[in-house]
Amino acid sequence: MTKIAGVERESATEITEQLPDTKAAWVTVGGKSEQSGLVTFQPIDPSHTQVTLMMDFDPEGMAENIGDKLGFVDRQVKGDLKRFKHFIEDRGSASGAARGSVRPGVASRSAALRSTRGRTPR
After folding, report:
1. What percentage of the chain carries pLDDT values higher than 90?
2. Average pLDDT score over residue span 95-108
3. What is the C-alpha R_g of the chain?
4. Pick from 85, 80, 19, 16: nearest CA to 50
5. Which pairing describes strands 115-117 and 12-19: parallel, antiparallel, or unpaired?
6. What are phi and psi of 80, to 5 degrees?
7. Taking the CB of residue 57, how many other CB atoms lie within 10 A of it?
8. What is the distance between the terminal CA atoms of the chain, rounded to a whole angstrom?
9. Of 27, 67, 118, 119, which has the maximum CB count within 10 A?
10. Which secondary-structure segment (H or E) carries 80?
């Protein structure tokens, strides 16, 4: 579920590409709003990584358009990235989950394409 400026949206998310420790890309499927994104991880040194997020979000309706123009979407994304940073730093080690690769148009035994319900990464 995504909640921005008081508007909640729930949709399924399909991982379209995933390379462990490198990048993950997704699109929403079904649902009202369309979103897609790509997050990349670039090692800087043994203890630091640069995280880059690119998202495509098409606001619907007056509330979402106003929220986007007033910067609510941008602040939500930046806040979520800070929470992600703290989550990773507090964890101290990899969880071992979702380590397989997903490549466009290629089926993989180690990590089949799957849809997940829940919060769309922001």
Report:
1. 24
2. 66
3. 15
4. 85
5. antiparallel
6. -65, -40
7. 19
8. 11
9. 67
10. helix 72-91
